[in-house]
Every structure is written in C-alpha cells, then in structure tokens.
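Supplementary Text 2. Reproducibility record for the structural model of the 134-residue chain.

All settings were left at their defaults, and a single model was retained for analysis rather than an ensemble. We include the record here because the model underlies the residue-level annotations in Supplementary Table 4.
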Amino acid sequence: MNNILKRTLLPSLMAASLAGVTLVPAKPAAADDQVLRDAGIGAVTNVVTGAVRGNGSVLGNAVKGGVTGAAVNGANGLRNTRNRHHRNAVQDVGVGAGASALTGVITGDKRDTLGNAVDGAAVGGAIHLLTNHK
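Retained model, structure tokens:
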C-alpha cells in the first residue's frame, strides 16, 4: 500500500510544487509609477529621430519609442528606491539602444537595426536628461 501511495501522490505533489514555483513571481514588476511618462517621452523622441533620419512611419516610430521608454523605465526600476532618483546615463542609453533594436526586429524592421539602436540610444538619453534627479 505504501508503494502505491508513493507512485500516485508523489508525482502530483512534485508537479504542483513546480507549477507553484514557476507561476508565482518572486518579485513584483520592476517598472515604477512613471512608466507612462517614460513611454511618452520615448514615443515623441523616436518620432522626431525617425523624421530626422527619414526612417519609418510616425506610428511605427511611436510604438518603438514607447516600448523603448518602458524598457528604460523597467531597467531603472531594478535599482533600489534611493538610487532611482539618480539615473545612470550609460545604462539608460544602453538599454534604450538594445530595446529599440530588438523591437525593430520583432516588428519587422530588420533592414536598419543599427538605425533602430541609434534611435533607442536617443530615447534613453532623452529620458535620462528629462527625468534625472526627479
């Protein structure tokens, strides 16, 4: 009887514990309450840089910029509360460049990955300049 219980109960218990560990996040999302502000700054900045470079549509550039702004905000949210007010320029520019390049690949704009990275770096720099020490 003991072996029957082990063979039927133990796999179910292991599956339930694995599902509980993987489905319940250990930490809440890193983005803070200013994510919409950063997404807006990113959208406007990317529309301007896209127009200057003559690349993409206004809507496509706004979407890429918004996603990039949210990514910069999320990366900034990984730091503790005290350090959130003192942003790191290199981190903001780097995350912006990477997020914009990746978003461009996902949205199908694969022909200008370097240009997307430059646009994202501009978004990260703009967010850093406008929101540092606030």
